Structures are given as C-alpha cells and as structure tokens.
C-alpha cells in the first residue's frame, strides 16, 4: 500500500514529552531545547513536591486532632457532624515552579496524580477537590490552555466506581474556573484493577476505614468498558462540555476492537504512550506493534487529530543534566534503552537520543493513504449539514461541480444505461418513437453529466436514442443550453420544467399516424420552456425541430427509459418518489424502465458524542435542532450493534512481538466491526400503484409514499445511543448498484463520494446495557404537501426468566425486509445459556422525534 501522496500530505503529528517526575521550572530556554529535540510540547506539573508535602502535613495534623466519625441518631455518618472543615491555604511560591511567561503556550499542565477525587472518605475527596481547584485556578492565571487531569480512581476496597460522581462534580467546577482551559481526562482504555496501584504519598490509602467497604476477597475482574463508563458519567454530568476531552493511555496489549472503536468515537485529543507500549526490533530500537500502528492511523484521521504524548521515554536531550541536578533519576534507565550518559561513554556511532520520538516521526511519514471519500471530505468529518431541498431551492453551480467529481456514480449510470439499451435492442422491444429510436429522458439533468453519459451509452450500445433533458433549475438550464450547442451537437431536446408538469416528449408521427396535436401556438408544455436549437442542428424526427410549416404533426409519446438522480442520503429524503410519481404516466406502460429501478433506506443505531454535543449547542438558537435529520460525513461514531468480525479481518488483530513492524512495513488503519445495518423501506419505479388523481384535486394524493418500520438491533456491549446513522442502496439497472451502506458499499460502489450518510439525532442519549437490544420505530410521513420523518428508540435489557423458553418474541416488523439480526443473535444467546429464556425489560425510551417543522416541501 502506498503512503500519502505528495498532493495529500496527510495528518501532521504533534508530539509532546511527559516526565512523571518533572520538577524543573519551564522557561523559554527549555522550550527551545524541546523544539530542538523535535518535540512540539511538554508537560509540566502545576505544583511541586513541596506543595504535596504541605497538603500531607495538613491532613495528618488535622486527622490527629479529629475524633473519628460516628453514626448519628438518624444513621448518617459524618455528614451531620459539625466538624471544622480542612481548608488548603493558597499556593505559595515554593508550591509551584510555574510563572506566566512566553513558554506557557507550549506546555500542557498536569494536575497532581496523588489526589483522589473519588475517595469514599469525604475528607479525602474534599481535600482532593480543593487541590484540583487551586491548581486549575493557578494554571488559568498563568494562561495555560491545556490540562491533563488524572482519571478517576475506580476501586476502593469493596467499592467500585462509587465516587465517580464526586469526580465528575469536581470537574464541572474546574471547567467553570478555567474558562479558557481544555481539560483532558487521562484514562486507560479498560478498567484493569491490577493497574490501579497507589504510590507513596497518594491520598487514596489515607481514607478512613469507617468509609471503606472491605472487599469480599474476590478480586475485581477486568472490565472492558469500565473506564468508558466512568467517562460517560463524567461528560454527562458536565453536559458534553466542548472543553472536556479525553487523554487516552494506550496499553501494551490493545483491548478488543469493540473497545477501540468506542474510544475512537470519543473526543480523544491526546494519545499517551509510555515505553512499555513499545517493542524492540531486531536492532534493539523501539517500535510499535501493527495493531498499535493501525489504531494510531485510524485516530489520526479524525477531524481533530489527537496529539501524541510520549511518557517517560527518557529525557529531552540537553535537559538531562538539569533533571539530574534536581536529583531526578531518569525513568528511562528502567525502560531498557541506553541513557544519554551511558551512550556518551559508548563507541556507538549513530546514537539516537530520542528513539521513541524518531519512531513516531517515521510513523507519520508512513500513514496509509486516505480513501477517496476521506480526501474529498477533509474538514467535513462529523460536520452537521442540513439536507438539501433541491425541489424548493435551486442548487448553485458549485454544488453540481462537487457532485460531478464523483469517480463512480456517473460511470455506473453509464453502465446501467448501456445495459438497458442493449437489453432493449436484444429483446427487440418496440420503442415509443416512430423511427424506432429508444426515447430516453434525463429528468433533473442539473448541468448535464448524465446527459453526456446517456449519449455515450447510446454509442457504446450501438442503439439510437431520442434524448430529452428536463430540468427545473433555470440557472442550470443555461448551462444545458450551452452544452447542447458546444458539446452535444444539438442532439438533445431540453425542457425547462418541473418534471411533474412535463407533458412528455413529442415526436413527429410516421405518415398516417398523426394525431391532432399541433404545435405553433403552444409547445404543449404549459408554463414550461422548450429550448429550440438552431435550425438544422436536430435530427429530423425531433419535436424541438419545429420551424413553422414542416413541423405540423407532432404528438406526445412515452419515455422508454427515464434516467434520474434525485436521491438523498437516506434514499427518498429529497423526494425522488414524489418527483418520479409525477412522470410515471409518461413512462412506456409496457416496457418502460426507470434508472434507478429501486432504492432503499437503511439505518443502524450509533454512539456519536461529538454530534450530540453539536446538536445540543445548536438547540440553544434552534429548538428544532434535535428534530432534524442531518447529512454528515460520519467519523467519530461507534456502531452499537455489530458483528464480532471486522470488515477487514486482517486489521486490528492483537499485537504480538512477531507482528511488530519496522519502519518499512505498510500500515493499515484499523477497521472496526461490521455494523448491523438494516433496511427500513424501499421504493421502485415505474410504480403501478399510484392512485388516480381525484377530479377535485390538482395533485395526486401521496399516502402511497408513506412508510413505517420497526427494527430490532442486538447490542453486545453497553454504550450510549445518541442517534441513528442512515444510508441508502439503489439498483440502477440489473446488477448495477450504488450503495453508501458501509456493509455493501465496498462491493457495490467503492470510492463513491457523492453522498455522506444521514444522522437522526436523539434529544437525550439512551444508555444501552450489555447484551441489550435497541428497537427503532421510524416513519416516512406526508400530508400531501410535504414529507417528513419520525423516529423513536427504545432500549431493552434482556432478563433471564426462570421458565425455559425456546423461542423468544421479537418485535413486530413491518414495511421492511425483516432481516433483523436480533432473532438470530438471540438464538445464539439462548444456546449459550443452555436454552434459558429471556424476557425483555424496557430500560429506556426516547421521545418521538419528528422533522415535520423542517419537512421537505413537495
Ligand atoms: C441531485 S441533482 C442531480 C443533477 C445531475 N443529474 C447530476 O447527476 O449531476 C438533482 C437535480 O434534479 C433537479 N430536480 C429536482 N426535482 C426536480 C423536478 N421536480 N423537476 C425537475 N428537476 C428537478 C434539481 O434541480 C437538480 O438539478
């Protein structure tokens, strides 16, 4: 696989240096050395060991005078005692090395890791909160823009995750205190209790026994989603604050892809790697496993490219002496790589003082190339766009230009038209043209790319066509006229009209078959403009070749092949069904073909915290924001219902030493699991079931275009459902298909860029339990004037029943292909559980959302 091409420079890596025990003041000179060493930033603790000792001293003297808390008559402990609070005095000059200076913008401040905001002992939790707020206030004063906040401690004896809510509450205060600071909560990818060890001087072990619960001797197990759970609680408490971000610590052994993809959907703005993440290559240099490289590559494609922090990988060259002078032994000596002083004495010639950094810089050069849609959509990842209203709003030329860049769509249309023409001719079907030409109409021709393709298809198939192009956008129509003159040789009859009021193509009847339709005074297209090319440009059989006497016997005929491209991100959301209904009567009733022949809408539930936060922010000025389906290039999302195997099974496999990679090996970005994307509904054309227009109405009723569906999605892992990701598939003709569905796109129309997915938001995220089920009810509604969607999500937990059942009730499906994976997956669960039965318990339910206010006008 190629690396980034020169026209696609790829993401630039910003790499920082973190030293757990850095204890030197940071000044401009130090920052200079940081840059000289090829780092972009460094971390600095806000306070000094002096402050730490002072707080420990305060606590110890306070505790020595404090009576141990007892239960009061009401049964609460400590909370109602009138105890004198312990107040940490303001920082003194020995408590911090930080001073506001020009270096401040290059540093990431680090909050003390010895505090325990989650402590079950209120005294320790409060002391920790005070330390946090003092440090945040001082960092804000100094102008620090980024803070690294050690994540919540999840285990306290027999208590697990109890204090996270205190932590979250304290972070909320901190966010308000530092209004220009971005807070990065430093989290492990999984909750591994064995890694949560207290070190000397930590406040956690000082929690008083009365507040602890003895553990029951059963060591807590690894919880794959334990740290994500804590994060979810914190950010929910802080209302998805845009300055609340994740610093994700990459472990030596990466967790399963389900966990990786969850973090990929979160606002990870820092990736931290310590020396234990690295393997050694044959030459003894640090390298990362393929799995680590793949995950980094995936993360680096996010809209906001995370920074990398190399932690405890050795000193910054030139600063080693300063650190040693402070009595800090470089932790590198423990990492197995030579220290600077060791190397100074060695005879090795090409010594690299920062091998981890060199590796990361090299990794940047080797990033896999972006896919066409990624390249096309740079800057649009996770950016909410209101869907187009092409019926009521005329598109700008630039919008057409963007469509026309698609390397697949037009090619596939040409293939479809060619096939249809060849079939027509091979099957010797009669045409609607007296001369035997196949009458083709491109309806909604835009600037004409499909017209060009139809002409090419005719040539390719060797089948003569009478080509019509209908477009309602008067501005685009100017370009169609120009193309007809300069490129198409006047071969196309152009009609400026809404296709729904077009009366159809007109042809000169063969002798003896004329009907009474005369042209001259009327063009037969009320309110429309039929473009007349210069005399002689058209072939003689064309309706548009009228010039007085020799064009007296024109009559309407049918269209044999209608070509349209009116699809939106959710197939029918730009009213393709309603537009094509309007010309249904013009299609050859026996052999007529529509390209596309059919299209279907698909969706799957997703976790999308960034989109949720953006929708919430928009709600302030627009209450309809959470009721709007958005077009979005989805990136930072996690599929809540997926199969266990990734789309590309080679990528993302677990790291082992022999899968480590040297500098030359190509990298694949991790592919996460294949989602369960299910079909909501479909439409096909021509449609034999359109009701007749009642005499009392000027339009046909639209109730036949109403759809509804109820689909069930098994969710293997717990998560938060923020909305639904929607896609479409379409059969253009025969086996020529287009798809944006991530499951079928690769096979049907890889590299197509014309459509981003659609996102149906939920006002309030719904929590989904492990082995839960998400059931979505969705409608396509109409009042004959506009079309809108309604959607609602329910979440179920599966509760084992005592009575054994073999068949489990699945929700009713209607209006859709009921290829629900739920029944199948649950059968597997039942088998796993020895045929034990389950009962569904509803644990959450969204509002019934409706886009009626922003409905698409017909
Ligand atoms: C998505 S664009 C496709 C343009 C072009 N066929 C292409 O593939 O690049 C849809 C076009 O259909 C036109 N359109 C939509 N509804 C229409 C209608 N009812 N009658 C005529 N044109 C319509 C729009 O103005 C727009 O030019």
UniProtKB/TrEMBL annotation:
Transmembrane spans: none
GO molecular function: protein-arginine N-methyltransferase activity
UniProt entry keywords in alphabetical sequence: Methyltransferase, S-adenosyl-L-methionine, Transferase
Binding site for S-adenosyl-L-methionine: 400, 409-410, 471, 498-499
Domain of life where this protein originates: Eukaryota
Site, Critical for specifying symmetric addition of methyl groups: residue positions: 403
Protein name as catalogued: Protein arginine N-methyltransferase
UniProt lineage: Eukaryota, Fungi, Dikarya, Ascomycota, Pezizomycotina
């Amino acid at each position: 696989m190629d690396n980034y091409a020169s026209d696609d420079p790829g993401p630039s890596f910003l790499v920082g240096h973190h030293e757990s025990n850095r204890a030197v003041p940071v000044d401009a000179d130090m920052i200079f050395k940081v840059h000289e060493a090829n780092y972009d930033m460094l971390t600095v603790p806000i306070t000094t060991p002096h402050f730490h000792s002072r707080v420990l001293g305060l606590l110890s003297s306070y505790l020595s005078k404090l009576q141990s808390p007892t239960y009061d008559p009401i049964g609460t402990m400590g909370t109602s005692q009138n105890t004198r609070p312990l107040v940490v005095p303001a920082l003194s000059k020995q408590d911090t090395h930080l001073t506001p200076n020009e270096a401040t913008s290059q540093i990431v401040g680090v909050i003390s890791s010895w505090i325990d905001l989650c402590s079950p002992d209120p005294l320790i939790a409060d002391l920790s909160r005070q330390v946090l707020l003092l440090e945040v206030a001082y960092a804000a004063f100094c102008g620090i823009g980024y803070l690294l906040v050690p994540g919540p401690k999840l285990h306290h004896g027999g208590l697990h995750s109890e204090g996270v809510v205190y932590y979250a509450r304290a972070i909320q205060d901190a966010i308000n205190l530092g209004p220009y600071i971005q807070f990065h909560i430093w989290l492990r990818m999984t909750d591994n209790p064995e890694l949560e060890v207290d070190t000397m001087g930590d406040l956690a072990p000082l929690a008083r026994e009365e507040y602890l619960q003895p553990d029951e001797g059963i060591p807590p197990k690894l919880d794959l989603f334990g740290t994500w759970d804590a994060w979810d609680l914190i950010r929910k408490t802080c209302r998805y604050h845009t300055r609340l971000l994740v610093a994700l610590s990459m472990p030596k052994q990466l967790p399963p892809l389900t966990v990786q993809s969850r973090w990929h959907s979160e606002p990870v703005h820092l990736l931290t790697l310590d020396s234990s993440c690295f393997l050694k290559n044959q030459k003894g240099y640090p390298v990362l496993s393929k799995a680590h490289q793949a995950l980094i590559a995936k993360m680096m494609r996010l809209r906001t490219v995370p920074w990398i922090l190399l932690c405890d990988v050795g000193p910054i060259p030139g600063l080693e002496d300063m650190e040693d002078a402070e009595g800090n032994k470089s932790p590198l000596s423990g990492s197995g790589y030579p220290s600077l002083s060791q190397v100074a004495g060695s005879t090795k010639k090409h010594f690299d003082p920062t091998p981890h950094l060199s590796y990361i810089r090299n990794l940047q050069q080797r990033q896999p190339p972006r896919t066409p849609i990624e390249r096309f959509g740079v800057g649009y990842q996770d950016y909410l766009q209101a869907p187009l209203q092409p019926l009521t709003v005329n598109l700008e030329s630039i919008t057409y230009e963007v469509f026309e860049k698609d390397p697949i769509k037009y090619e596939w249309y040409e293939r479809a038209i060619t096939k249809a023409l060849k079939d027509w001719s091979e099957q010797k079907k009669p045409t609607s043209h007296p001369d035997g030409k196949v009458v083709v109409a491109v309806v909604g021709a835009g600037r004409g790319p499909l017209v060009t393709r139809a002409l090419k298809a005719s040539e390719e198939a060797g089948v003569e066509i009478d080509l019509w192009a209908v477009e309602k956008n008067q501005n685009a129509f100017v370009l169609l006229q120009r193309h007809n003159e300069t490129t198409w040789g006047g071969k196309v009859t152009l009609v400026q009209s809404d296709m729904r009021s077009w009366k159809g193509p007109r042809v000169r009847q063969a002798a003896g078959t004329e009907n009474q339709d005369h042209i001259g005074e009327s063009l037969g297209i009320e309110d429309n403009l039929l473009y007349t090319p210069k005399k002689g440009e058209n072939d003689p059989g064309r309706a548009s070749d009228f010039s007085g006497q020799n064009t007296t016997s024109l009559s309407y005929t049918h269209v044999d092949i209608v070509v349209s491209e009116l699809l939106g991100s959710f197939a029918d959301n730009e009213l393709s069904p309603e537009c094509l209904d309007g010309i249904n009567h013009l299609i050859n009733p026996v052999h007529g073909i529509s390209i596309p022949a059919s299209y279907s809408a698909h969706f799957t539930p997703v976790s999308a915290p960034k989109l949720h936060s953006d929708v919430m922010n928009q709600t302030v000025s627009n209450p309809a924001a959470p009721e709007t389906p958005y077009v979005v290039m989805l990136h930072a999302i996690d599929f809540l219902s997926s199969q266990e195997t990734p789309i590309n099974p080679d990528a993302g496999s677990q790291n082992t030493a022999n899968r480590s990679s040297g500098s030359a090996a190509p990298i694949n970005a991790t592919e996460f699991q294949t989602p369960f994307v299910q079909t909501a509904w479909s439409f096909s054309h021509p449609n034999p079931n359109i009701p007749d227009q009642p005499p009392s109405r000027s339009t046909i009723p639209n109730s036949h275009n109403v759809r509804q569906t109820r689909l069930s999605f098994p969710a293997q892992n717990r998560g938060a459902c923020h909305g639904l990701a929607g896609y479409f598939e379409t059969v253009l003709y025969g086996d020529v298909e287009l798809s944006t569905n991530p499951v079928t796109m690769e096979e049907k129309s890889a590299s197509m860029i014309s459509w981003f997915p659609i996102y149906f938001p939920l006002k309030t995220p719904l929590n989904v339990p492990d082995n839960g089920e998400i059931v979505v009810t969705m409608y396509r509604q109409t009042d004959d004037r506009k079309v809108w969607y309604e959607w609602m999500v329910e979440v179920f937990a599966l509760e084992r029943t005592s009575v054994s059942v073999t068949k489990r009730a699945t929700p009713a499906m209607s209006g859709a292909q009921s290829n629900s994976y739920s029944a199948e997956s649950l059968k597997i669960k039942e088998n796993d559980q020895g045929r034990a039965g389950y009962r569904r318990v509803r644990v959450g339910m969204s509002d019934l959302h409706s886009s009626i206010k922003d409905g698409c006008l017909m």
